[in-house]
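Journal club prep — side note

Before the paper discussion, L.F. wants everyone to see what a predicted structure for a comparable chain looks like in C-alpha cell form. Sequence:
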Amino acid sequence: MPDHPRYAGNNPIVETGTAILSDDEWLTIDIEGLHFSITSISDPKVDSITTESKSRNQVLIKINTWQGGDLTFKFRVGMLRSRDLYLSVHLDVHYNHRIITYTFTQERP
C-alpha cells in the first residue's frame, strides 16, 4: 500500500489505475501474487461480464461490449489478507482502442 492510504468511500484502495489497450490486448494486474487479467470481447452469447478462475491465484475477466450501454461493474474477485477483495472496473470503447479504469478495494475490518 502507498505511504498515504487512499479510500473509495470508507473502503481502502488496494490498487487503482487506467490503461489504454488495443482490441486484442489484455491488462494484467498483480496484487501480492494474485493475477487479474482483463480484456474486452464482443459476443452476443456471453454475459456483460464474465470471470474465470484459471488457478488459485489467476482470474480472467472479460467485459462484453456486444450489448453496449454502461460498461461499469463492481464485484468480489477473491480474498486478500483474509478479507474480501472487490474490483470496480469501467471500459470505454473507441474505434481502435479500449480504455480500462480499475480500482481494487477492501472493506474495513
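L.F.'s comment for the group: Residues 7-105 form one domain. Keep this in mind when we get to the figures.
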